[in-house]
Amino acid sequence: MGRLSKWLYTCFNRRKVSTYKKIPNSTSSLVELNAETVEIHILSIKCASCAANVEILVKNIAGVYDVTVNVVSKIAYVTLDPTLTSPEKILDIIIENSHTAVIGARNKKEWRIVYFKCKISVWNSKTEELFDVYKLKHIRSDRKTHYFSVEYRKKCHGIRKVFQDLEAAFQKIEIVDVSDVFPSQNKAEVKYWRNMCIISSFFGVITMVLMILEHNNPKLSNILIAPGLSYTNLVSLISSTIVQVVVGRSIYVSAIRSIRTGLNMNFLISTATTVAYVYSCIVLILSVVKKYQHGSHTFFDTPPMLYMIVTLGRYIECKSRMHSVTSIMKLMKPNRQSVTIYPDSKNPNIYQEISSDLITESDILHVYHGMCVPCDGVIYEADTPGMFNEAVITGESLPVQKKLLDEVFCGSINEGNPLKIKVTRTGDDCRVQQITRCVQVALSKKIPLNNIVDIFSRLFTPGILLLSMVTFSVWIFCFHNYPNLAKKLDIDSYLAFTFQTSISVLCVACPCAIGLAIPLAVMISTGVGAKYGILIKGAPPLQSMARVKKIVFDKTGTLTVGIPTVEQFFYDSCSNIEIYKNAVYSIVSFSNHILSRCIKKYFENCNFNSLNIQDYKEIPGLGLSGKVIINLEQPKYDEDQSMAEDDPGTDNKDTLEVVIGNEEMLNLNSITTSEVTKHEVGEYASGGATIVYAAIKDRFFGYFVIRDEIRMMQNRQYDICPLWVSKA
């Protein structure tokens, strides 16, 4: 009881007994204090009680500002002062308290951690030298595959130099991400609990059938195989023993460890099954020794039935956790690919093919059309302005134009012509990885309800044990002082009834459902959002969303598929119509804008040639303009001679000034449209269409009606209404 009372005192008086510094109120204060944030993957966390106990353990370490443990992802985010403590010291303390843990990512700018896997059988001299050069650590082994982490200074060692040294020592290696190291543990855990669920369910069903048969025919319990030993008790004993040894082994190990670190749910389960099994064995032995002529009342059905429910719950929990964690880990993470770099920026004929993991800062990288950029950088060389889809960063599906020295982000897709970029940031320093890190850290932030749940989870296990003992004591007291009570309750053995009630208290009580409800809901919601490109920054925004009644969406690329097409093209007819269309086609061919590309695609079947263009201009947000050089013939009008007066091509000039864009572009060039055209355009615009005007020789020529297909939403009813915004 001394350890229990000390543990309870720690739960209620954490701030009085802990020696950690008070966490500053702002991030800037943490920077001033030279604080460092480190991830520690604690693989042995099983429930909310385990997570709460780890938080208390780490917070009592001097130099720790704050710690938050996510019970779903099994990651502890520790903010510490590197001058007072170190991640290695915290890791050693966690391992000393019977936990399996390993250091993950940290935010030290001068250091970088690389994870790799290899197949080795023996250590050699080169391998031992690496332990002195780099902070080489062995994480885990999976059959013949070994996983290592290497920590090195970015300024002293480049990633390619580190890779060469590792490959020389380990022969064949493969660099992996931290998310590739730990999900395999989740997969193994899912497989393990699936197998345990199958075993416990098999024997649980057998036990359930025996219970039903005994209930319908009580005489079956008196069919003996030996004096005091019935067939049903023998089968139940065998089933219970197998389940206790095979299925209960890992739960017993966790329960024994929790005695030192803090009682958890496994302690309750193991206590309930042990009491039921040991009591039943004692009763069965006494029945055989005394040679009873009837079967004894035992509780061998408790372990198989309880483990069947527990293992099923663990399997479902682990599977849900694996899917949600995998979605978060893969959030906006570009796939590994082979890239082309130019070691000598002055000689484009010398290039090298390497893996995207080996890119370093200041490398010149070739980015071809459709390639996903694997790092941050700036445009170093480009014949034409680049067009990049930055939906992974901004959520906007429309490509963004990039000129020389403009910044390009990791995860964006080049939808324009090939170009070269100069790498500025790689790995975890990239913008997209920083966003991912913010999302992961935000997931560990707790809402006020979480604090109440944590306190409840820490006190629940000892409280249930105490309640079970009180239940046992009260019934013993009642039966001892009231001898006729057993007859009134129609009970054969008051001792068996007393054990049954106390064991029932242990079986039905489980704090994990309460402790896992909030974090698992947050993790699954965030994982589903990440799958569809929606970033949810932790539990507080989700809690706020419960009060949201209306949501305003951007139409293009969000409610629509983001691939606009020309629905109709209205124009004034004349004899030079094909030449004017060719002029429009030539102008839009110079642009990589998504609307220009859809107009160009509209003219594909016309077999137009790109004409010579002069003074080409592209004004962002307005449109295009330029001069098209052609040999224009005198037009001939057969019917409507009034068109000749307004026809911009009635002269013999070989230069056509073309303007293409929105209404503001026409106003900028002092081009007007008729009232009939304005009315027609207004009807199309009110229906969600985008209007692109075309003018030639300072006169209105026609307009394109462009639509973007609405995304198919099953079982959803929606109305798209225009939102008029006044400009100040």
Fold and architecture overview:
The protein has 728 residues and is an alpha+beta fold. It folds into 4 domains: 147 residues, 2-Layer Sandwich (Alpha-Beta Plaits); 217 residues, no CATH class; 101 residues, Calcium-transporting ATPase, cytoplasmic transduction domain A (Distorted Sandwich); 134 residues, Calcium-transporting ATPase, cytoplasmic domain N (3-Layer(aba) Sandwich), CATH 3.40.1110. Helix content is 46%, strand content 21%. The N and C termini lie far apart (73 Å). The N terminus is likely disordered.
Estimated radius of gyration: 36 Å
Instruction: Output the structural class.
Output: alpha+beta
The coarse silhouette is elongated
| Number of helices, where a helix is a run of at least 4 consecutive DSSP H or I residues | 25
Distance between the termini: 73 Å
Number of domains: 4
Low-pLDDT runs of 5+ residues are 3-32, 634-646
Strand order of the largest sheet: 12-11-13-19-14-17
**Oligomer category:** single chain
GO molecular function: ATP binding; ATP hydrolysis activity; copper ion binding; P-type divalent copper transporter activity; P-type monovalent copper transporter activity
Transmembrane segments: 192-213, 225-247, 267-289, 455-477, 497-522
Domain HMA: 36-102
Organism: Thelohanellus kitauei
